[in-house]
Amino acid sequence: MLSRVAERIYWMARYVERAENTARLINVNTLMLLDLPRGVPLGWEALIEMTGASEAFAEYYNEPVERNVVRFMVADQRNPGSLISSLKGARENARTIRDIIPREAWERINELYLQAVAELPGSLARGRRYEALMSVIDASQQLTGILAGAMLHDAGYDFLRLGRNLERADMISRIIDVRTADTLPPEFAGQAPLRSMRWMSLLRSLSGYQAYRQQVQTAVRRDDVLEFLFKSEQFPRAVRHCVGEVSAAVERLPRSEEAHERCLSLIRQIERARVRRFDDAAVHRFVDRIQKSLGQVHDMVGQTWFLVAPPPAKRRRRTARGRVAVQSR
Predict the structure, then answer these.
(1) How far out from the chain centre does Cα 2 lie?
(2) In sequence order, which residues have a C-beta less than 8 Å from that of residue 183 and are 6 or more positions away?
(3) Rg, the chain, Cα only
(4) Is 187 buried (19+), middle (13-18) or exposed (0-12) by CB count in 10 A?
(5) Is the pLDDT of residue 309 over 70?
(6) How confident is the prediction for the chain on average, in pLDDT?
(7) How is 132-165 classified by DSSP, letter by letter?
(8) Could you read off the pLDDT of 26-71 as tens digits, one per residue?
(9) Which positions ≥6 away from 148 have C-beta within 8 Å?
(10) Dihedrals φ, ψ of 303, to 5°?
(11) Which pLDDT does position 324 carry in this prediction?
């Protein structure tokens, strides 16, 4: 397989996953507004921190209120990580490899992008937002099914799995980090239902609430949620599962020894971590280590299989909390 083709498949998968994750985050934050008691503020700035785009947001908007954050994350094409920008990147990569991916996949990506450009900017009000973003999530899931069911499961599909699961692990770790640090006001901090609601929101943002109840079989508690989202091998949106998928895809490729060993090292690091005992600061430090390792795997993929490494479109930017975020245009 040509390096150019492999790179396009990899980035197409990352962009589609990024768009879906963005839609999930905004929908869950919107639904939380309906559940929280009056007087409990719901911060929208945390969503900007999750994507590592605090500096870019401050450049164009005065304050992180709901309206500004939603527009920036969904429809603002000045933001390279917005939902529409992500779909644009996925479409452009897919367009150049139409002879490699199934025709139905190209048509679905093209249709999804055109529909998003036409409808999303006018659907940002709270009353219309949920359905519009759910259509993006559903289309992304449909595309995943098309690719799994119709694309040859050869090296190209391995690069697809690589891109999707690296992006997913990256976003999951960001979500955990920010949600762990997102504390309640002092007057509400002692209310157990509100604390539980925050962790239920985290699980629902990853479509993991039902899977959590089936596997953990306890009430929603901080320690159990952290253990589940970091270390579950069965849940597709747990960090351990995603890294395992990356490792399996890398192992099938030639010249993969260094990247595969990096994946195995990260798996061992996750499995040995006593996340149940982590306070918020320890969670943040652990996420930093995971982010660094994921970035190393990303760099190794570029250096080993792509024409240029790192990709010229990639840049690292430090977030408001000090973490280095990887972004691409």
Answers:
(1) 27
(2) 189
(3) 19
(4) exposed
(5) no
(6) 86
(7) HHHHHHHHHHHHHHHHHHHS--SHHHHHHHHHHH
(8) 888 787 776 666 666 667 888 888 788 889 999 999 999 999 999 9
(9) none
(10) -70, -30
(11) 36
Q: In whole angstroms, what is the distance from residue 299 CA to residue 292 CA?
A: 11
Tell me if 205 sits within 8 A of 275, measured CB to CB.
no
**Look-up: residue for tokens 């990853």?**
206
Q: Is the pLDDT of residue 294 over 80?
A: yes
Residue 94 has pLDDT above 80, yes or no: yes
The DSSP result for 5-72, as a single string, is HHHHHHHHHHHHHHHHHHHHHHHHHHHHHHHSPTT----SHHHHHHTT-HHHHHHH-SS--HHHHHHH
Can you give the pLDDT at residue 322?
38
Report helix, strand or coil for 294.
helix
| Side-chain-side CA neighbours of residue 298 (13 Å) | 26
* CB-CB contact of 27 with 129 (8 Å): yes
Q: Alpha-carbon distance 170 to 173, whole Å? A: 5
Give 137-184 pLDDT, tens digit per residue: 999 999 999 999 999 999 999 999 999 999 999 989 988 887 776 555
CB 250 within 8 Å of CB 294: no
Distance CA 14, CA 206 (A): 16
The domain segmentation of the chain, as residue ranges, is 3-328
Q: Nearest to residue 139, comparing CAs of 14, 19, 284?
A: 19
> What distance in Å separates the CA atoms of residue 36 and residue 184, rounded to the nearest whole number?
11
